[in-house]
Write a structure and sequence with these properties.
The protein is an all-alpha fold and 240 residues long. It has ten helices and no strands. GO terms for molecular function: hydrolase activity.
Length: 240
């Protein structure tokens, strides 16, 4: 399912369900629901979340920096010939990696920066850094598309929000939105493996992402979500 559909469906259903259950809809809860709706796809370099977080211009900056570093290593005299040539070519050649690999590299560099220089944002800096490291090394629809990830993300949000004045519902918003993303992916031909190493696949085979039928299924799900949001946040208050 496309990222924009995940964003609307997971966020809309999560906030609607929270409202119906009597949980406060705070700005942090909304932000967590939005991020969590896309978070499972952080293991896919071309996903909506990763493309927004690591746009093309950052990749171009990294490529230029790597080429510049290669030229510097060649002339700096750090290594004797021919090792200076080999070192320069090794560093410079990284700039010609495919965009997917370059995004993984950027994610790792951002993670290192968060570990090293973002103490003021503790514990969110460490959380984000760990997520980036894991996402850059695991395969798509691997560990991030399991119930283990839902439980881990919910538990992480729960413990982080204990000292926050308006953080009581963050773990609910995060785990529910994350879980809804996985449920939406279970509609596809590929499905998900929710409890590896158990080989069971949750796969309803209703659609394939990017196909005409897939687009139609996504539109129906989005329209149903919007209808639910209107009912919960527009019609229900007026009826009361």
């Amino acid at each position: 399912m496309m990222g924009k559909s995940h964003l609307v469906i997971s966020t809309g259903v999560t906030l609607s369900a929270m409202s119906l259950l009597g949980h406060a809809i705070t700005l942090p809860a909304v932000a967590v629901a939005v991020v969590s709706s896309l978070l499972p796809d952080i293991d896919e370099p071309n996903s909506m979340l990763v493309r927004k977080a690591v746009p093309e211009f950052l990749l171009r900056i990294l490529q230029v920096a790597l080429i510049g570093a290669g030229i510097y290593l060649y002339f700096a005299g750090i290594a004797e010939p021919p090792w200076n040539i080999a070192l320069a070519l090794l560093v410079g050649s990284v700039s010609f990696l495919p965009s997917r690999r370059l995004r993984h590299l950027v994610m790792l560099l951002i993670a290192l920066a968060l570990f090293a220089f973002a103490d003021a944002y503790d514990p969110w800096n460490y959380i984000a850094a760990c997520v980036l490291v894991v996402a850059s090394i695991v395969p798509h629809r691997g560990i991030t598309h399991t119930l283990y990830a839902v439980a881990g993300w919910g538990a992480l949000l729960y413990f982080v929000s204990l000292d926050m004045n308006d953080g009581g519902s963050l773990w609910i918003a995060g785990s529910l939105s994350y879980g809804l993303h996985l449920l939406a992916d279970s509609l596809t031909q590929r499905g998900i493996t929710p409890l590896p190493p158990i080989p069971f696949k949750l796969r309803l085979k209703l659609m394939s992402t990017g196909t005409k039928k897939g687009n139609a299924v996504e539109k129906v799900c989005v329209m149903l979500t919007l209808a639910l949001v209107v009912y919960v946040f527009v019609l229900t208050p007026s009826l009361g």
